[in-house]
Amino acid sequence: MLELLLQQAVNGLTQGMAYALVALGLTMIFGVLHIINFSHGELYMLGGLMAVVATTMLGLPYGLALVLAVVAVVAIAALVDLVAVRPVLPTKDGPSTVLLSTFAVSLLLHQSVLSTWGPNPSRVEGLAGSLSLGPIVITNHRLLVLVSGVVILLAIEYVLRRTLVGRRIRAVAQSEFAAQVVGIDVARIRTLTFLGAAAIAAIAGALIAPVSLFTPSMGQHAIITAFVVVVIGGMGNATGAVVCGLLLGLLEALASAFMPQDMGTAVIYALLLIFLLIRPQGLFAGRAR
Amino acid sequence: MRRILIVMALALAVAAPFLLAGQSYYSGLLAYAAVLAIFGLSINLTVGYLGLISFGHAAFFGLGAYVAGLAIVNFGVNYWVTLLFAPIPAALLGALVGFASVRLGGAYFAIATLTTAEILRLVVSNWIDLTRGPLGLIVRRPRVETLESLGLVFHQYYLLATLLGLGLAVLIVHRLLESPTGRSWKVIRESNALAESIGIPTMRQRVMAIALSGGLAGFAGVLFIPRTLVLTPDLFNPMLSATGLLIAILGGKGTLIGPLLGGAIFAALPETLRFVDEYRIAIFALILLAVIRIQPAGLAPLFHLTRPFRTPGAPAKGGEIAFEPSPRLVVTDLTKRFGGLTAVDNVSMTIEPGELVGIIGPNGAGKTTCLSLISGFTPPTAGEIRYGERKVTGDSPSSLVNEGLARTFQQAALCGSQTVFENVLAATSCPEPASLLSSVLRGPGWRAREARRVRRAWECLAFVGLTERAALEAGSLPYGEQKMLAIAVSLATQPRLLMLDEPAAGLNHTEANRLADLLRSLRQRGLTIVLVDHNLRMMMALCDRIIVLDRGRLIAQGTPAEIQADKAVIAAYLGGYTAEEAQNA
Amino acid sequence: MTILKRHLAALAFGAILAAAGQANAAEPVKLGVINPIKTLVGKQNLEGAQLAAEMINQDGGILGGRKIELVTYDTNFSPPEGVAALQRLLTQDRVKVVAGEISSSVALAAIPVIEGEDAIFMAAVPKHPDVTKSGYDKIFRMNTTTAQDAQSFDTFLLETVKPAKVAILAENSDFGQVTINQMKKLFGDKLVYSDTFGMQQNDFAAMSTNARSSGADTICIVGSNMEQYGNILRSLSDLGFNGNRCLMPGVLNSQGVQIAGAAAEKAFSADIYVPSIDNAFNKRFVAAFEKKFGRKPEKIEVLGFESIWIAAKAMDKAGTADDTTKIAKVIHEGKWETPRGEVTFDKNGQASSGELIRLVVKSGEIVVNR
């Protein structure tokens, strides 16, 4: 039994890392721009697609594929920002209208991939081989997901805490008005955050594609879970999103040893709603981000 | 003109099933459009009228359909009977979701509905003993022998039923909109604080509106059954929620005709776009983006189908407003700390019935915080507030307004896009409330109360001298008149004690004099008044008694003459005040 | 000269005859096809149907030279859209026979509409048991039911594979639920683990770990989405599971094998069709399909093909394109040659073609298991 639980913990952590990375971008955007970016899941999907294109069509090594995914997705995100976020945000009812405009963008991105790439799933070759620690097996690629996840999280922590840009981002998140008063270009910081979040989503998509295949609908499935993670973590709270993402993956995997998987997920969602009732500010509210 | 249009639409709706006798394809599409329109109407209640975005209305739609389906399959209930009760669980679910999420603001409601739909989908797919899971509930065509013996075919009377359902839904929403309920929705959408300050229990109103919206969506779900006949967990699909949302937005948020247009488009467009099937959803997405960017208000305004508010006629004989006497307001040891800062520090005071009391003090003395604490907008850290016999500490602002304890804000809070009259009328439901049901049924009692509400609104407007302005947009009034309007709005709630926060700030000399006359006249009519202002000349001339706050503490109180002579006040405060006084004078 | 004249006369006469024939053939017989054409399976199924129409027209059409013409509409996996498409076909395009479709929900919603218009429905793929239980005798299904599959596959599992402990991973759909119940009956205590996965799930590591640690020597996968069963095969291989991997009949196809890669090796299954079936009709069918679409057809394509082929042939045999009662009777009574062999229909309209063909994956290819 212990073996089983340990193996499930390893499985759950990789899945949780995927949740955490997608949720991290979503929560960053919420924290700084105060909007929900509905197209975030599709950016994640495009990251996966770029990995497919780079490895199978262009024959690039996987490492380069990651780079290509980030570059391409950030470019697309810049376009999304230009069309659906920046001009809409300052209008009346801005934040809720952005929810809709990014929703339209997500449909558009999804449909474009469907009609050019087609509905077929594709396999991506990541790192080969696997590692055995006694009875526990972990593939090298899953290990890569875990390690890169940790590296990305540390890098973001460093940027937010130790660099000028990071301090500016945190200033805008706390009060746009105050940030403006001290001379910070708020619009630029918003765009920067949006693109940064897109870059994380792209890496996440490219990292996960070799584990769970690329499908054009992977973004739609990811965004719902990401919402749940963001809410439990406290909207706009980066630490909360990461911890809750990892926790959700872990719980789902461990719960699957005792109950049907779908039921486990339903239970977790129901807990979320109850959670909203008693602690609406989220698990990590009150702590600085 | 509008009446003719409505009559024509009704006649066409009744005739449609017969005109489309041999055309099951077109009558099917029309029935589907009607179902979608009801669904859009339901989402429009939250998105359009309350400003709450929902991503999971499929939860209510699907629940309605499943409750009916289960009743039909397991208990052999007649389909047409389920239309009466199957929407109820959806309404209850709406109330629950609303209660859980609404006090947290819009984004939470979106996520709570999305998650609810997802939970229901998972439960329905996995509770196989009850729902048959993905195998789906299979319902037979609900044929009615009596109607068929009259020569009607199934698709004809199904169409008739959906059109009747749509008519009913439109009628209910229409009547609610032109009732205290609908007026309060509009104020809530504008500002929650404003709504509370005119006695609207915002939490309850919102939860009720969401419950109604859930019930309507459930009703649409039940009406949908004969179209699909097999109920699967896909009914809870986020795509269906999105469709409803798009119907409301494309048609026109917050309009009655919008969802009808949107529903028709969503039923017909996919069929007419069959030649570009592959790009259908992409085209939708583009249309949506274009609508958001070019025509954010949706299609309804393009057709000039939205009607501006019609101001009812003023009563021939203007009545006089009068006020009931206020009980005594007793504040004991009131304290408020924000983090390390103590904004209000152990303040105790008593306001006697019929008094006009002024509160003065330098900036940051805690005057406004004091008002906010007493009016229930900010919970105190410590202390007690008694209004008459009742302890009211911790009560919501709206319940205090219903007790007769009202306030105004420093910045005149109004619904800028509504007319002057609408602003005042919205506040009259506080003394003359109306239940949801009575507003739909509109019996003689309701009509009499509505007449009283209208009369009261006219009286309040006349009192502040804005009768001529009644039909103008409130946002277009000059600043001084906006402040007067804010007072008229407060008066419409029939207060016994009115707290005014800097009513004279920003007024010129003449306007300030008129305000002073107005306040005197209110006091003569029995209204108890607490006044916070910087205009010391006006305060000294007007007030019976003055309370002086400094850095959160009460440092002196007494008649204007006593205050002017008080050494503590002069030492701690008046020295620094002269400049400001000069500025204000 | 006279010879020339005679020739000319003959030519003219021939031309008149041909024109007369043309007039008759100018009135093609319309057949409806519904399918979720934006999805991979829907498109494959439609391609099969298109090839059937093409081959019949090449052979000179039906009913004395009338061509057949397909009217195709998308159903988008959605019952209301399916119903709209059907009503359009039946009342606007006035077709009498509708073929195709993948989704059981759409098929079930379609049946009352079909019955209301007294039309024939040649359901190609929907597997839901209730599709052929409506009591209306003009519904036919080409695909096998899960129960039919079990009849032939169960003996193979019990007698040839002989597992000591079985685990089952099933999609949460009509297909998955029916199969789990059957496996419970079949294996009783030997079934040591079973779980279902949602149709959107994409990480199967947790489930595969549970299945492996249950001690099963045979893991049965019930998944109609190739990305899902392909992924499960990969997860099992990552975890080092080396027992039997069985895909329940009817789902294994070349794209799934491609997705799973080396992890699919030695996985076995069974189906009603493989392109390598050795009969003349199949050879013609495969050649024509490869020529038209550039790849080998598989089961989904064959089912689409049959749904049109049999309907057209039955119209021809019944001598009518409109009398659905007559056509349905002919379909019920006939024995139909199709690429998979001889197909007959029972009284409920359910097709059968005898034993399933056992399949196994060898060096990335699906081959017949002997």
TrEMBL record, chain A:
Pfam families: BPD_transp_2
GO-annotated cellular components: plasma membrane
Localization per record: Cell membrane
Biological process terms in GO annotation: amino acid transport
GO molecular function: transmembrane transporter activity
Similarity annotation: Belongs to the binding-protein-dependent transport system permease family. LivHM subfamily.
Name of this chain's protein: Amino acid/amide ABC transporter membrane protein 1 (HAAT family)
Automatic annotation (TrEMBL), chain B:
Gene3D superfamilies listed in its UniProt record: P-loop containing nucleotide triphosphate hydrolases
A Gene Ontology molecular function term of the record: ATP binding
Entries under CDD domains matching the protein: ABC_Mj1267_LivG_branched, TM_PBP1_LivM_like
Top-level taxon in the UniProt lineage: Bacteria
Keyword Cell cycle (UniProt): no
Keywords carried by this UniProt record: ATP-binding, Cell membrane, Membrane, Nucleotide-binding, Transmembrane, Transmembrane helix, Transport
Bilayer topology: Multi-pass membrane protein
Coiled-coil blocks: none
Pfam hit, one: BPD_transp_2
UniProt main location, coarse: membrane
Annotated ABC transporter domain residues: 329-576
Location in or out of the cell: Cell membrane
SMART domains named among the record's database cross-references: AAA
Record-annotated membrane-spanning stretches: 25-45, 52-73, 79-100, 157-177, 207-225, 245-269, 281-303
InterPro entries in the cross-refs: AAA+_ATPase (IPR003593), ABC_AA/LPS_Transport (IPR051120), ABC_transp_permease (IPR001851), ABC_transporter-like_ATP-bd (IPR003439), BCA_ABC_TP_C (IPR032823), LivM-like (IPR043428), P-loop_NTPase (IPR027417)
Any single GO CC term annotated in Swiss-Prot or TrEMBL for this entry: plasma membrane
Protein name (Swiss-Prot/TrEMBL): Branched-chain amino acid transport system permease protein
Biological source species: Chelatococcus asaccharovorans
Top-level taxonomy: Bacteria, Pseudomonadati, Pseudomonadota, Alphaproteobacteria, Hyphomicrobiales
TrEMBL record, chain C:
Coiled coil: none
Residues in Leucine-binding protein domain copies: 28-352
Residue stretches spanning the membrane: none
Matching Pfam families: Peripla_BP_6
Signal peptide: 1-25
Keywords of the record: Amino-acid transport, Signal, Transport
UniProt-listed GO biological process terms: amino acid transport
Keyword Signal applies: yes
Matching PANTHER family: LEUCINE-SPECIFIC-BINDING PROTEIN, PERIPLASMIC BINDING PROTEIN OF ABC TRANSPORTER FOR NATURAL AMINO ACIDS
The family this protein is said to belong to: Belongs to the leucine-binding protein family.
Protein name: Amino acid/amide ABC transporter substrate-binding protein (HAAT family)
Organism listed in the record: Chelatococcus asaccharovorans
